[in-house]
Write a structure and sequence with these properties.
Blueprint lengths: L2 E4 L6 H6 L7 E5 L2 E5 L5 H7 L11 E3 L5 H4 L2 H8 L9 E4 L1 H4 L16 E4 L5 E4 L2 E8 L5 E8 L2 E6 L17 E8 L9 E2 H11 L3 E5 L3 H5 L2 H12 L2 E4 L5 E3 L1 H4 L2
Parallel strand pairs: 3-4, 4-5, 5-6, 10-11, 11-12, 11-13, 13-14
Antiparallel strand pairs: 1-2, 1-15, 2-3, 7-8, 8-9, 9-10
């Protein structure tokens, strides 16, 4: 049985810096293949502390949507852990070009010897990882950033990562059984390259997933009690919407049985 486990649900710098929510990544298992998305601060520790503990040596891939610190701080240690504490070369790293090259890469050259394969994320291409097909959606977010689509026998799972909203954005996620959205702000602001709750509503309404999960919360979302906001959206949209909490595990039966 597949699942998505939210090791952390913190979004934006203040929630991360104060650790009001954990800032670890998202662990995903589909069709027996395990991958890790966006290993932010504390990911390795959270993998070992959750129950049952998660073993990074079982990962087939680490997916990095962009290089901002709340998404990438543990990238190097997780690559080493995936490779059996650096004793072998194994697994795949998918990351944007600017996380690997340029003046400010976050993946250390030292750590690049650990994955068996490194792939540069680009829109319009598909990568095969042990039965999971991965596709990237270019987002608008200051640095090179991608949303991700994971296709497997257990359905289509979409991750709407940090981005400025655009009317065409929902088109890329149509057909998702499970849709996970990073919703940093409760109210819309023209100067912030993050989704607000009203914009998330537009995406969910257009995509009509079987299950939508809100995560990556900033201060205004936390103050608004995301679990209550999600319940209100469920009633408004007639779709199941839940707010992730640290450690929440969403099993594939929740998005496949509808």
């Amino acid at each position: 049985m597949g699942y998505v486990k939210f090791l952390g649900t913190a979004g934006a710098r203040f929630v991360v810096a104060r650790q009001l929510r954990y800032s670890a990544g998202t662990w995903i298992e589909l069709s027996g293949t395990q991958v890790l998305l966006d290993p932010g601060p504390g990911t390795l520790l959270r993998c070992r502390r959750v129950r049952p503990a998660l073993d990074p040596a079982r990962l087939s891939a680490v997916l990095l949507s962009h290089k901002h610190l709340d998404h990438s701080t543990d990238i190097n240690i997780m690559l080493e852990a995936m490779a059996g504490a650096g004793t072998k070369r194994r697994g795949v790293l998918l990351a944007p070009a600017d996380a690997l090259e340029g003046e400010d890469p976050v993946v250390l050259k030292y750590a690049r010897r650990f994955p068996a394969r490194i792939e540069v994320l680009t829109e319009g291409k598909t990568w095969e990882i042990d039965g999971i097909q991965v596709q990237a959606v270019r987002h608008r977010h200051g640095v090179e950033t991608y949303g991700l689509l994971l296709n497997s026998e257990e359905g289509r799972v979409g991750f709407v990562i940090d981005t400025k909203f655009s009317p065409t954005l929902p088109e890329f996620y149509v057909g998702c059984d499970l849709l996970v959205l990073n919703v940093v702000r409760r109210e819309w602001s023209p100067d912030i390259d993050h989704l607000s709750l009203p914009e998330a509503v537009e995406i969910i309404r257009a995509v009509e997933p079987k299950l939508a999960v809100l995560t990556h919360f900033g201060i205004t979302m936390l103050r608004g009690k995301p679990w209550e906001l999600a319940a209100q959206l469920s009633e408004k949209l007639g779709l199941e919407v839940v707010a992730a909490s640290d450690g929440l595990t969403v099993e594939s039966t929740r998005w496949l049985s509808r």
